[in-house]
Amino acid sequence: MMMRSLIPLALLAFSLPALAQEPPPPRIQVTGEGEVAAAPDMAQVQIGVTTESGTAAAALDANSEATAAVLARLAEQGVAEADMQTGNLSLYPRRDDRRSQNGGGLDEPPIVGFVANHTVSVTIRQLDSLGGVLDAVVSDGANTLGGLSFGLQDPAEALDAARREAVADAMRKAELYAEAAGVVLGPVRAISEPVMQDGPMPMMAMEADMMRGAVPVAEGEVKVTATVTMSFAIGE
Predict the structure, then answer these.
(1) 3-state class of 134 per DSSP?
(2) 51-82 per-residue burial string, b: 16 or more CB within 10 A, e: under 16
(3) Which of 15, 141, 208, 214 has a 20 to 30 Å separation from 190 between CA atoms?
(4) What residue numbers bound the domain in which 136 lies?
(5) Does residue 18 belong to any structural domain of this protein?
(6) Quick one: 180 and 221 in the same domain?
(7) Where would one find the signal peptide in this protein (predicted)?
(8) pLDDT tens-digit profile of 79-94?
(9) Under DSSP, is residue 201 helix (H, G, I), strand (E, B) or coil?
């Protein structure tokens, strides 16, 4: 019984190297890229309130009051509560660096006040109101603006168009390589798309004049890109 059970294993051991030595079929693998430009229909901006006072409590209280006014004004401007999110909340001492620089002999400059900062990330879904919203919140106490970017609320349609362009680009490259190499391009064997780490990349510009009416904003365009890798068989 023991000898009969070893025979199939021995035959299998001799057959495995032969299978492993078979070369993979020749293929052409290329990467295609596609890009589609679209008008943005939303914007995201970082709105901040920075206050300073002689004590930490006073700085934080003043900041909380000003931030509450800014949030209330955003709500009045039609910004939904779900589209407002705190991105940073900080409180830190402000030191008199001049005494240290002038040879005061101190290991650490003295504290002369405290600074509180509250930054809120705001999504604006009505772009025609963006300039008015920015002007309104500045009037109510916001004194820092940054990180303005434009995007698409639903990029699926633009992304699918970019994917079609990426596939067409990959097929064009494969046909070119096959012709240059003097071979026949066979059918598609594999298609893959890398995982997108970032959303659509915006191409935009912003101009601001806080002294005159609503803030003018140039929306520009949002460019949506797609990349695809395709593998083709080489025909006979």
Answers:
(1) helix
(2) bebeebeebbebbeebbebbbebbeebebeee
(3) 15
(4) 42-151
(5) no
(6) yes
(7) 1-20
(8) 999 999 999 999 999 8
(9) strand
